[in-house]
Amino acid sequence: MLPRPALFYLALVLALPLSLHACKSGGAVEPAPSSAAEPAAEAAPSKVPAALAHEATPTITAAGQLKDALGKRVHLVGRADNAKVGAVVLLGPAPIYCIGVASWPDAVRNKLVRATGKLVQTDRYKARVDDAGAISQGSAGGDLVLEGCSYKEAN
Question: Is the Cα dihedral 101, 138, 77, 113 positive or negative?
Fold first, then answer.
């Protein structure tokens, strides 16, 4: 069996193509064409508390809404979890990195949060290949991040 960090990294790498596919397909969470043998679970939109749904800054609750929100200041309502890079907000299979938050406190992790910031796509965490062909740890690129991230519990 793989050590826990390796399993988490493997899960992240396998989920990334799915999250990018969901963004491009308008929210459909069908698995992206890949060699992964396991089908992905279907993701339902997060439930948005009524008090958050009427604000002027767009509130994003499903992966299908991410593409239209790129470059804008948004509220993301999703489940808080931790990854190697830092804190993430999960919208179904789509991890959005909450830049500036190293990890979620235990009291917040796995709970519904509202994270606010500018949604951008970046290759900042993409794996690199050196001159000898060695590949660094990293993502496939095209990661979604929330710059200037602040948060509060959504419940």
Answer: negative
